[in-house]
Amino acid sequence: MKKLAAGNWKMNGSLAALAEVRALLAAHPAPACEMLLCPPATLLAAMAGVAAGTALAVGGQDCHPQGSGAHTGDISAAMLKEAGAAYVILGHSERRADHGETDALVKAKAEAAHGAGLIPIICVGETEAERDAGKTLGVIGTQLYGSLPKDFTSANLVVAYEPVWAIGTGRTPSLDEIAEVHHYLRARLIAKIGGDATKLRLLYGGSVKPSNAVEIFDVQNVDGALVGGASLKAADFGAIVQALSAA
Ligand code: PGA
Hints:
Blueprint: E1 4-8, H1 18-27, E2 34-38, H2 41-51, E3 56-60, H3 77-82, E4 87-90, H4 93-98, H5 103-115, E5 119-124, H6 128-132, H7 136-147, E6 158-161, H8 175-193, E7 202-205, H9 210-217, E8 224-227, H10 234-246
Parallel strand pairs: 1-2, 1-8, 2-3, 3-4, 4-5, 5-6, 6-7, 7-8
Helix pairs in contact: 1-2, 1-10, 5-7, 7-8, 9-10
The chain binds 2-phosphoglycolic acid.
The site of 2-phosphoglycolic acid has 13 residues, from β8.
C-alpha cells in the first residue's frame, strides 16, 4: 500500500499560490508516499498543468451526485476528472455543516465519483460534544456505513478520520484515541469487504503539521493524512510528505 499525503486547500489559494506547488515539487520530486493537493475548483486545471508528469496528483473538494443538469453552482465528478482530478474529497465536516450534507448524499456522490473514475476520500468524524458523551465510535460507524459507495475496494476508496473539533484548532486527539478510531474503521471495513480492506488507506486529519506528523504516522492503521492549513505552504506540506515517506 502506498501511503497518501493529501492537502485540502479549502477556499484558499490563487494562481499565485501555484508557486508553492512548484516549490513542493522541486523539493520532493519523487517521495515514497503518494502526494495529492485538492485546490478550489477554479484552480484545478491550472494546478493539474503544473502537476502533469510529476509525482503530484490533484483532486476536487466536492462533486454533485448527478452527471449534468440544472444544478447552478455545482460541479460533476466527470467535470473534475476532465479538469485533471484523480481524487475528490467527499463529506468533509465543513460541507456536512455548511451545506447540510447527509450520509446518503455523500454515498450518492461517492458512487458518482466512481462512475467518473475518481477515487473518493470520504470524511467522517465526531464533534467535541459527541466525544465528551462517549459516542465517538457510534457516530463514526453510522457515518461510515451510511456514506460508503457500493462496490468499493482498497484501490478506489480512501477514508479520512477527521474529528470536527480538531480541524483548524491546533488541537488533536491523543495517539491512543487516533489508534482506537482507526482500528475501529479498519474492523468495520473488513467486516464489509473482507481482507482487501487491510490495504484501504485510512487518513487522519485535523491540525496535522510538521511538528506532530511523525508521531501520528507512527500510529497503527494510520496510512496518511488529510491536511488543511499546513498544506498551503510548500515547506510545511513537504515536511509532512517527508515524515510520511519515512514512516
Ligand atoms: P486542518 O484541516 O489541517 O487545517 O486542521 C484539516 C481538514 O479539514 O482537512
